[in-house]
Prior knowledge:
The chain is α/β, with parallel strands linked by helices. The protein is built from twelve helices and seven strands.
Amino acid sequence: MKETRIICFANNKGGSGKSTTCANVGYGLAQLGKKVLLIDGDMQLNLSLSYFPEEQVLEYGRGEKNLYYAVKNQRGLEAYIVPTSYENIDMIPSSTLMSSIEYELFTKWQREFILKQVLGGVAASGIYDCILIDSPPTLGGWVMNVLCASDALIIPVEATPWGLFGLGNMFEFLEEVKPIAPGLKLMGIAITKVDTRKSYFKQTLETLKELQDVHVFDSYIRVDSSVEWSQDNNVPIMAYKKSSRSAKEYEALTKEIAACL
């Protein structure tokens, strides 16, 4: 039976390219022959919208075939998986009701491990090589759930003046999680929204490289209008325009991540 690796994408700074990176790394891993399950853990629905049109995403959100009801009812995630139109990629969609997930978790026994519990059956089945989880840009009980359910963490960081803002809080939060999730590893930092013409990209890179025991992926993602067009069409960039610069950069990043699995 194959070993399933669970990787989450988290950053408490909004606009870091977290959902886009999760969506495209998932697609890239499928292109490498991996069977992938994507889990949208953010009420903003961006990961779901990367694969399905808005009407379908809202339909999933209005119904009960989404992550919110799986967590609320503490039911195995098997019943909430929907296929995408891409080979080797399935999804558990999100819902805007995820905005109240902290409230739902508050009264539950061992609330930090609810996601790990409901994910256990899928992970143990060996159906998937990789499970990728997108998390909201917050720090709290739900993100702690995501981290506790994962084997590895990737932190997307945008190369902008505010891109590093709050990264210290993220590292402090990881230290708080370590005692209850000792197996969680920080796989690395992925730099996104890069404009190589501007000096703060170099400053961002230098600052991140100075961090002790933190891997920074060599592949970075530059600003590219093709990404916005792919989002507007609800498809990953590598499926929308394989020849685009960002598609090639996400392909390179995916290969780096695959080498760490």
